[in-house]
Write a structure and sequence with these properties.
The protein is mainly beta. It has one domain: Porin, CATH 2.40.160.20. Strands 1-2-3-4-5-6-7-8 form an eight-stranded antiparallel β-barrel. It is elongated. The two termini are 36 Å apart.
Length: 233
C-alpha cells in the first residue's frame, strides 16, 4: 500500500509539473509602421511613425505597459480638398495600456488552431499626444479664407489595440523574442490632430479626430521569472 501511495503522489507531481511553464515578466522593444488620418479634411493620407514599448506581464497573456510614439500624421490636399486644406503633423505621443490575449481565455493546449493564435490580443489605455504642424494651409489660396487653429497643442488620446504576438522559444522552452503585429486606433479628445479648430459647422465631421497606426516590431523579454499554470509550448 505504501508503494502504491508513493507512486500516485509521484504521478500527481509529474502531471502538475507538465501543466506549468515559466515566463519572463518584462519585455522591451520597438516597431515601425504606417499612420492614417481620419480628421476634418476629406483625404485620409498615410505617413510613417515608430514606437517603443515596455510591458509588464502578470501572466504570459495579461500585461500592462507604456508605449511611446513618434512620427507623422497627414491629411487633406491643397489641390483636391474643397476648401484647399492640408496638414502635416509631426507628433509625439505616449500612453499607458493594458492587453489581454486569447491564451488567457481559452484551452489552447488541446487545440492546435487556438495554440497558433494564443497570442492574439485586445487592449486599450489612455495617454497624451503632442501635435506640431510642420506643414499646414491656413489660408485658402483661391478665396483667402483663414482657417484658425493651433500649430502646437496637446490632446488626450485613447488607443485601442488589436494585434498578435508570435513567440520564439529558446532551447530551455522559454520565450525571449516576440514578433509583434499591431493595429491601433487612436481617438483624439481635442482638435489638435489636424491643426484646424473652426467654429463653422461646415468643417465638422460629427465625430472625434482619429488616426490609426499599423505596425510590426520585435520585443525582448527579460527580468523576473513567473510561473504559469498553463504549458506555454
Amino acid at each position: 500500500m505504501k508503494t502504491i501511495i508513493t507512486a500516485c503522489l509521484a504521478l500527481l507531481l509529474c502531471t502538475t509539473a507538465t501543466a506549468q511553464s515559466n515566463f519572463y515578466k518584462m519585455s522591451f522593444g520597438g516597431g515601425f509602421g504606417i499612420t492614417t488620418s481620419y480628421a476634418d479634411v476629406e483625404k485620409h493620407s498615410k505617413a510613417f511613425a515608430g514606437n517603443l514599448v515596455f510591458d509588464y506581464y502578470f501572466t504570459p497573456f495579461i500585461s500592462l505597459g507604456l508605449e511611446g510614439q513618434m512620427g507623422e500624421v497627414a491629411g487633406g490636399d491643397i489641390d483636391t480638398d474643397p476648401y484647399h486644406r492640408q496638414f502635416i503633423n509631426q507628433f509625439k505621443a505616449f500612453a499607458f495600456t493594458g492587453k489581454v490575449a486569447l491564451g488567457a481565455l481559452t484551452d489552447y493546449e488541446h487545440n492546435n488552431f487556438l495554440d497558433n493564435i494564443k497570442g492574439l490580443y485586445l487592449g486599450s489605455g489612455v495617454g497624451l499626444i503632442q501635435n506640431k504642424m510642420t506643414g499646414i494651409v491656413r489660408r485658402d489660396p483661391l478665396t483667402d479664407a483663414y482657417y484658425p487653429g493651433s500649430d502646437e497643442s496637446k490632446d488626450l488620446r485613447i488607443p485601442i489595440n488589436l494585434g498578435i504576438d508570435f513567440f520564439f522559444p529558446n532551447k530551455y522552452g522559454q520565450t525571449r523574442l516576440l514578433l509583434n503585429v499591431n493595429y491601433q486606433g487612436n481617438i483624439i479628445l481635442g482638435e489638435g490632430l489636424d491643426g484646424y479648430d473652426d467654429s463653422s459647422r461646415r468643417f465638422r465631421s460629427g465625430s472625434p479626430d482619429i488616426y490609426t497606426f499599423l505596425s510590426i516590431g520585435l520585443r525582448y523579454q527579460f527580468g523576473q521569472i513567473g510561473l504559469s499554470k498553463k504549458s506555454f509550448f
